[in-house]
Design a protein that fits this description.
Keywords: Disulfide bond, Glycoprotein, Immunity, Membrane, MHC I, Signal, Transmembrane, Transmembrane helix
Distance between the termini: 43 Å
Mean pLDDT: 92
Main location: membrane
Membrane topology: Single-pass type I membrane protein
Oligomer: single chain
Shape: globular
CATH architecture of the largest domain: 2-Layer Sandwich
GO biological process, one term: immune response
Order of helices and strands: EEEHHEEEEHHHEEEE
Subcellular location: Membrane
CATH superfamily of the largest domain: MHC class I-like antigen recognition-like
Length: 201
């Protein structure tokens, strides 16, 4: 399965049963340019085949005799407020870290000895490092801007938090708890005030 997300919102999906990349939001269905879904389906199908081969390689490295195993890949980019890009690529196997790419150093970091041959191959083939640098610094931000453009109305909305404060008193000491939920975008700052005084806790 392949899922595409923007700001935590799933907007496209491919799975091996349907074998088709499909929109998950109205804004993506309406915004995608002609041919987009066919191209993404082809890319996803190639990825599925390569990942099946990679799982077979992992089977040998981990001496698996059978069973169901999963390869997870998480990659993407963040467009920072100063105009720079932060990109990342991580692979995991069966829920454990396997290998990741450090954009700043242009090198792969292994989380497991079984990933060492992969690191050597990818760093010496003259293609993989250059591909991920180019993808994370150029292609990913270009597409992210397009996706944000398609869903601007939804993605740039502002929803204030619902806030609930409760208190519990024990031995003459009042302990307050604050729960905030339902807000968008997903990062907010919350401060305690006592009168006009800002409190650390």
């Amino acid at each position: 399965m392949i899922m595409g997300y923007v700001d935590g919102i799933p907007f496209q999906r491919y799975d091996s049963e349907r074998r088709r990349m499909e929109p998950l939001t109205p804004w993506m269905a309406a915004g995608a340019e002609p041919g987009y879904w066919d191209r993404q389906t082809q890319i996803s199908e190639k990825t599925r085949l390569v990942d099946a081969e990679n799982l077979e390689i992992a089977r040998g490295r981990y001496n698996w005799s059978g069973g169901l195993h999963t390869l997870q890949r998480l990659y993407g980019c963040d467009l920072l407020s100063d105009g720079s890009v932060r990109g990342s690529h991580q692979d995991g196997i069966d829920g454990r870290d396997f290998i990741s790419f450090e954009l700043g150093s242009g090198s792969f970091v292994v989380a497991d000895g079984a990933a060492q041959p992969t690191k050597r191959k990818w760093e010496s083939d003259g293609i993989t490092v250059d591909y991920w640098i180019h993808y994370l610094e150029n292609i990913c931000p270009e597409w992210l801007w397009k996706y944000v453009g398609y869903g601007r109305e939804v993605l740039e909305r502002k929803e204030p938090p619902d806030v609930h404060v409760s208190g519990k008193e024990e031995h003459g000491i009042l302990t307050l708890s604050c729960h905030a939920y339902g807000f968008y975008p997903g990062t907010i700052g919350i401060n305690w005030l006592k009168g006009d005084e800002l409190r650390d806790q």
